[in-house]
Amino acid sequence: MARAIVIGGGVGGLTAAAVLHQQGWAVTVLERSPELEPVGAGISLAPNAQRALDVVGLGDEIRALAAWQRDGGLRTPSGRWLSRTSSEAIAERFGGSLVLLHRATLVDVLRSRLPEGTVRTGLAARLADPGGPGRPATVTTDAGDLEAELVVGADGINSVVRKALFPGHPGPTYAGFTTWRVVVPAPERHFGSHETWGQGELWGSHLMKDGTAYAYAAAGVPAGWEAPGGERAELMRRFGHWHEPIPEILAGVAPEQILRHDVYYMRHALPAYHKGRVALLGDAAHAMTPSLGQGGNQAIEDAVVLAHHVDPEREPGPALAAYSAERLPRTMGIVAKAYRTGRINTAPCSRPVMLLRNALIAGVNKAGPNLVLRTLDGIMDWHPPQDRQTGAGRTEASRSRS
Q1: Is the pLDDT of residue 251 over 70?
Q2: How far apart are alpha carbons 297 and 8 in whole angstroms?
Q3: When you count CB atoms within 10 A of the terminal residue's CB, does the N or C end of the chain come out lower?
Q4: Distance CA 384, CA 82 (A)
Q5: What is the pTM of this model?
Q6: Cα separation of 95 and 398, whole Å?
Q7: Model confidence over 146-198: pLDDT tens digits?
Q8: Using one digit for the tens of pLDDT, what is the confidence trace for 277-325?
Q9: What does the alpha-carbon distance between residue 276 and residue 258 come to, in Å, rounded to a whole number?
């Protein structure tokens, strides 16, 4: 049986492991952390990722976790709505709505699709040899060397696999802003999902099905900037006077619950997402800002596209070249679009510039709410190659939307 080693036990790596196992590979997942502890608080799965998870038989299980059944949209710090949309409008346009869930929940669901013993934690891995025709790839660990017909580098934004394959590449670039994320018990007062834009700052609040609220914030700051007085005090200073439910959410946040990370992205594309018998996916290949909510979604797409191309009975070289050719232009296009979006709402700006931006957004919304959703055309309407081969998954909305 052909062997596949997945380096990295995050969302992308576990999706790859699940779909490769399903297709007959003998899969081993190597995760350097002592346990599978997902980085980040929540993840939003768009219709494109849900369709990818259908390939693994998990799409409906994920859709059942959807909590957003109300209107939502974009607001100002005072609470005024700039644009409105709804789960129904998204479903009509893209064939499904958004599902927001804990990353830990998604990791558990993905891991449940793998045989016992597939995931080996507390084991750092290094790529010793990418392999080639007639020669397996070699991965070095503290427990010894492992050989495989296929290696998947899913080891995140600071990928050691990427550095081994492309040592001359400059790696990720600072995007100009930092992010905070929290999950807290939902406020008593119900609210619609929203993202609120200020002057170089933003806040988002969303309900999850388990009765918690996922909130995130971003602000343009220099790389390595430290919050004076701690992260909670900084969030209160920046956002504590914004509209409800933001102050109520902040009131329930303990300092240790706050996750904060400077945002980096892959400004310079890799020459390919593969070399030898090794493929890169997710942040290891195309780290992107969270501005479109597509980072994890694109890693899931990568995994099912990779599995579609490779065959345990054949040399992977041509298949990996096809994987690179399919994924590199799509993902780097989304990287660029996410970066531009992030700069629009986190770059420091004057009040007149903010008011002009808000007026333009409100004007577009009045011209037609679906004009805002059109910015996600080509992203959220994606179908996996398995669907494209059979014609499955096409919705009336995708055929008729304008």
Answers
A1: yes
A2: 16
A3: C
A4: 34
A5: 0.93
A6: 7
A7: 999 999 999 999 999 999 999 999 999 999 999 999 999 888 888 888 999 99
A8: 999 999 999 999 999 999 999 999 999 999 999 999 999 999 999 999 9
A9: 41
Q: Which residue has the tokens 């994924």?
A: 327
Mean pLDDT score of the chain, rounded to an integer? 91
- How far is it, in rounded angstroms, from Cα 42 to Cα 160? 25
Phi, psi angles (nearest 5°) of residue 71: -65, 155
The answer to whether 398 touches 51, Cβ cutoff 8 Å, is no
d(CA 52, CA 67): 20
Burial grade of 399 (CB within 10 A; 0-12, 13-18, 19 or more): exposed
Give start and end residues of each alpha helix (H) in 146-203: 160-165
Rounded CA gap, 131 and 134, in Å? 8
Task: Kindly provide the b/e burial profile for residues 160-173, where b requires at least 16 CB atoms within 10 angstroms of the residue's own CB.
Answer: bbbbbbbeeeebbe
- CA–CA gap between residue 110 and residue 108 (Å, rounded): 5
Give me the residue label for tokens 């994920």.
62
